[in-house]
Write a structure and sequence with these properties.
The chain has one helix and 19 strands. The strands form five sheets. Strands 4, 7, 10, 13, 14 and 15 form a six-stranded mixed β-sheet that branches. Strands 6-12-11-17-18 form a five-stranded mixed β-sheet, with no helix packed on it. The protein has a three-stranded antiparallel β-sheet with strand order 1-2-3, with no helix packed on it. By secondary structure, the chain is mainly β. It is globular. A hairpin with a 5-residue loop joins strand 1 and strand 2. 2% of the residues lie in helices and 31% in strands.
Length: 264
């Protein structure tokens, strides 16, 4: 079946159905040489490139200095409003928390993802060095306020998976990303990186605040002492000494930044 926009265009769709041109407007500019596509922090993609002529020419396939921006189908949807991002991530080490309140109260907190994507550098339709990584997460949701605290692992304790240097980090809910934030991976320098053991994430749980009768040994409840747990579940990615970081490294790719849209 064809890939339907906003539904099954994802890595989980059947082979042959993960990309679609349905609903896309044709570019008004041919991109025949040094074509490039760069992901921007707002989730749009800047597209550039000109022609195969050796020198500047304005005949057929003439030189052009125009650039375009591609806006994904979800671009104007309500975005997760997130603040308090860390400025850096280490290879292994203690997990960290990010808290936000979804605008849509029906959001399943188990579907929320924290992803990294390297900006890379793009030429000839290939984005060199661009990689995508989903960090291991669990969550604590406060039922009364709908506030979600996402417990996030550090980088996998292996610098070869995602090399040190700057990257953009996003929170993604139901395929819609927040605005990206630049974060430094490792110490940002070429060479051997400090490596620590990955920490174990708390169990995921939904709690009701303001209940002084809470009585639970769940690790998440300890962070919310005046709360009673409605439901709890193991995190989908963590709870092992190795952290079980969920990751997918994307090697240099055609229309590199568009892979980010596919993998949401």
């Amino acid at each position: 079946m064809p890939c339907q926009r906003d539904t099954d265009c994802s890595p989980n769709a059947p082979l042959g159905s993960r990309f679609s041109r349905d609903g896309l407007t044709a570019s008004g500019q041919e991109r025949m040489y040094h074509s490039s596509a760069i992901l921007l922090a707002d989730g749009s993609v800047m597209v550039a490139g000109s022609n195969p002529n050796k020198d500047v020419t304005f005949g057929q396939w003439g030189t052009s200095y125009e650039i375009e921006k591609f806006y994904p189908a979800w671009y104007n949807k309500p975005r997760p409003d997130v603040s308090g991002w860390p400025s850096s991530l280490s290879y292994g080490g203690d997990y960290w928390n990010i808290t936000y309140t979804p605008k849509d109260t029906s959001i399943d907190p188990a579907s929320v993802k924290i992803v990294l994507i390297r900006t890379g550098f793009s030429t000839h339709a290939i984005n060199m060095g661009q990689r995508y990584l989903e960090l291991a997460t669990s969550y604590t949701k406060t039922e009364d306020t709908n506030e979600i605290t996402v417990h996030v692992s550090q980088m996998p304790p292996n610098a070869n998976i995602f090399q040190p240097g700057p990257a953009m980090i996003f929170l993604v809910e139901n395929g819609v990303p927040s605005t990206g934030k630049l974060v430094m991976i490792g110490n940002g320098k070429i060479g051997t990186q400090p490596i620590s053991q990955a920490s174990v994430l708390p169990d995921s749980a939904v709690v009701v605040s303001g209940n002084a009768n809470a009585n639970s040994t769940d690790s998440t409840a300890a962070a919310v002492p005046s709360a009673s747990i409605l439901s709890g579940s193991k995190t989908k990615n963590s709870a092992t000494p190795a952290g079980r970081a969920s990751w997918l490294a994307v090697l240099p790719m055609t229309l590199g930044a568009l892979a980010f849209i596919l993998l949401l």
